[in-house]
Amino acid sequence: MTLYLIRRLFQALLVMLAMSLIVFIGVYGIGDPVEILISPDADQAERARAVAALGLDLPLWQQYGVFLVRALQGDLGRSFVYNVPALQLILQRMPATLELAVGATVLAIVVGLPLGLYAGLKPDSIGGRSIMAGSILGFSLPSFWVGLMLIMVFAVQLGWLPSTGRGTTVEILGSRWSFLTRDGLAHMIMPAMNLALFKISLVIRLTRAGVREAMLMDYVKFARAKGLTNSRVIFVHVFKNILIPVVTVTGLEFGSTIAFSVVTESIFAWPGMGKLIIDSINVLDRPVIVAYLMMIVFMFIIINLVVDLTYTILDPRVRLESKAI
Amino acid sequence: MSAAAEPVTPEPVAPRVETPLRRFISQFMESRIAVGALVVFTIIVLLAVFAPWITPQNPYDLFQLDIMDGRMEPGTVGGAGFTYWLGTDDQGRDMLSGIIYGLRISLIVGAGSAFIAGIIGASLGMLAAYAGGKTDTVIMRLVDLQLSFPTILAALMILAFLGKGISNVVIALVIVEWAYYARTVRGSALVERRREYVEAAQCLALPTWRIIFVHLLPNCLPPLIVIGTIQVARAIALEATLSFLGLGVPITEPSLGLLIANGYEYMLSGKYWISFYPGIALLITIVSINLVGDHLRDVLNPRLQK
Amino acid sequence: MNTLEVQGLRTHFHTRAGVVKAVDDVSFSIAKGQVLGLVGESGSGKTVTGFSLIGLVDPPGRIVEGSIKFQGRELVGMPEEEMRQLRGNRIAMVFQDPMMTLNPVLRIDTQMIETVQAHDNSSREVARQRSRDALGMVGIPSPDERLMSYPHQFSGGMRQRVAIAIALLHRPDLIIADEPTTALDVTIQGQILAEVQKLAATTGTSLLWITHDLSVVAGLADDIAVMYAGRIVEQGDVGEVLDAPLHPYTSGLLGSVPSRNARGVPLRQIPGMTPSLLSLPKGCTFRARCFQAGEDCLQEPPMDEALPGRFVRCVRPLRATVPTA
């Protein structure tokens, strides 16, 4: 198991290195921040001084070398715009994005699992068909438009929920969180719902497909032949089997949820990493873009690892293999 | 004893001629929803193609716009004498005309990128399956890398490097989409490659391109069609999202996504129609494509074939 | 009183392509402690007959006609909850493929204890004790350790023993065994047959043994019923039927079994294929493949008692002479 972990971590390191190169070349190779960051009225000397201060006069490979050495020390550069370390900027915004993504994931499972279960058990009923139709809609609805409609209905027309921002936050362990206050929670409902929409549909489909497949398996029939009640068959025998794909996929989806919060945060003016990256792209604040991408890649690697470990807990067949390694 | 006394043969059943295409069409027709979705999608395409002849106004001809007609509610009769059925935007542009023109952009970008990505992805997938070895490994690693990264993020980054513009959006979409085709085609091609008829073709020393195009490709078509259909819908949605974020098409050629973004600021003051109707148009387009694609998957999936 | 009495059972599947008459007018009975071998090719309706008995026919199939009396109680139309209390309790079933019948993600103890607790209020400790005893009874070494295992840690033969142990937990009055040894090695098959025979003899359990393997029936069963295309075509004492079959199909089946005593003699085969249950030919369904079919076979043959205790569904039954090519 330890060996397995070490090997995984080594792989992760390689991926990080490869990504850093791609990201660096992508961001630094194209576009010219000098045009944006330095006033066009500045004279030649001022420009040169600014370029040197930002390290933009070095050849690209040297810039990368400097970047890599600093990155290993936890320094991903200073934001051109805010003039604070990019990593610090990202980390400051991370709790907001994390709580949004976690909220959306919880919503997706709480809403999606029961609906998918029902649709899988009664695929031909009106309820089952409506759920499937709804999930197709959930896949098809452009999520930014849904966000706008949510604002229109619940904030503008009904006035039930606040439309933008995080509301009141509480500080715990040095970061600010919204979900612990009533006001913060009210601010979170719409963005989380918006972000969850796609995932709810995904969970519904996965669950339904899993249930339908499991119901045809011999072990379900055998469980019924043992005289178990229907609810025991469904909630123990079928459920435990569908939990594996559902957990795997929602887990793996967590990364893309964080990525997709870019859209949701823009609509609801949620001050997270996503909003920051959009703003940074618009002004070509390269260190922030790079730091954000490195952070996302890092998160992906962590998520993959956690999902794999969860998987081994859920599926005894995998557990045996990893023991053997 | 072994001599059969009076063998009774079963009554011969008249065989019905059933070509794969005919069976495919009849199976597709079984779902009323899918047929309905196809009809709706056809209408949308026709609307987009014939936009200049249908719309009451050319929304991008500034001479036809009247700023006095700005932000009019749906159903108002404007200065030009025709009714703004879906209202107007802040520049006095008829929303209905704007939406139909926007559909054009959205469909061109969506279908165009899906098509180009399809060709590139299918070729690379085929190459990976046929060449095998290192080529296969390199291509599939690229596919894995591409698929493990969220599409929205990849597209955002590419556009951040390239800048706005329809062609740049198409490039970004192609880059994030090709991997799906490559994976699908490689999968089916690998299965087909091991079939006897391919071996027979190789024994006959038929040229490789002939084996690929005449034998392998047709057999990879069903999954390719399904993926292609769904990718068109995804591309349209992604383009709309990018444009909404201000990184997609330029303001002079607004797609549905940009129309929605334009209405965002008026939303809070209750002028819902500027964002609402383009969204509905987008929704209907995507849903109809997805419904068709969903049913295609059921019909073309050999595992579900009875 | 017979343990099981089946009269005129018809189980049909209403599919879009038409009605599949999987079981069509099947009657048989099993006395207490007796073993009935139900023999037929795949697709002849044996398995559906078994599932009909415990009320587990999957839609679109259902029992359309007939009566199943178990210890005098009518099972057809019995409320689901009453039926459930019988399943796994008084009537148990063992399935064909041991690799598929146990739930892969649940431990053996979970799958056994739940069976005990489905039918009485035993505590977990009592249920565990009984599970351990049942495992011991079917010859599984170190049952304590085995209870904590997952199915994938067992071989196929071991899994089938576990399944049999589960069937035995409540000392049922009837066990339906659907080709339980087909998927196993011959040596394992022999061991399991011997164990089952011993168990049936000591506990007075009746057995319905479904198989396509005549040699298994010959060694195990008291009576035999031969099924073809959803109907029983011949029925009687196992020795008598196998020595001198009356139905041409039974004779054909016997002729296609390789035997040591007939070395050098080419095996006979039954020409043609099992007819589709969707469009059965009129009259005798075996007509098209029968070497002695005639005009009169176009009439529906009734089930006749051709000899005392020997039932056959054929208008031209073979006389008590075995055809020897």
Automatic annotation (TrEMBL), chain A:
It is found in: Cell membrane. It is a multi-pass membrane protein. InterPro entries: BPD_transp_1_N, MetI-like, MetI-like_sf. Keywords: Cell membrane, Membrane, Transmembrane, Transmembrane helix, Transport. It holds the Pfam family BPD_transp_1. SUPFAM superfamilies: MetI-like (SSF161098). It comes from the Bacteria. Its main location: membrane. One of its GO terms (biological process) is transmembrane transport. GO terms for cellular component: plasma membrane. Residues 94-307 form the ABC transmembrane type-1 domain. The chain crosses the membrane at residues 12-31, 100-121, 133-156, 185-207, 242-269, 289-314. PANTHER family: ABC TRANSPORTER PERMEASE PROTEIN (PTHR43163:SF2), DIPEPTIDE TRANSPORT SYSTEM PERMEASE PROTEIN DPPB-RELATED (PTHR43163). Belongs to the binding-protein-dependent transport system permease family. This is Peptide/nickel transport system permease protein. It comes from Humitalea rosea. The lineage of its organism: Bacteria, Pseudomonadati, Pseudomonadota, Alphaproteobacteria, Acetobacterales.
Automatic annotation (TrEMBL), chain B:
It is found in: Cell membrane. The chain crosses the membrane at residues 33-54, 105-130, 232-252, 272-293. Residues 103-293 form the ABC transmembrane type-1 domain. The keyword Nucleotide-binding does not apply. One of its GO terms (cellular component) is plasma membrane. The keyword RNA-binding does not apply. It is a multi-pass membrane protein. Its main location: membrane. Keywords: Cell membrane, Membrane, Transmembrane, Transmembrane helix, Transport. PANTHER family: ABC TRANSPORTER PERMEASE PROTEIN, OLIGOPEPTIDE TRANSPORT SYSTEM PERMEASE PROTEIN APPC. Belongs to the binding-protein-dependent transport system permease family. This is Peptide/nickel transport system permease protein. It comes from Humitalea rosea.
UniProtKB/TrEMBL annotation, chain C:
Belongs to the ABC transporter superfamily. It holds the Pfam family ABC_tran. It comes from the Bacteria. One of its GO terms (molecular function) is ATP hydrolysis activity. This is Peptide/nickel transport system ATP-binding protein. GO terms for cellular component: plasma membrane. It is a peripheral membrane protein.
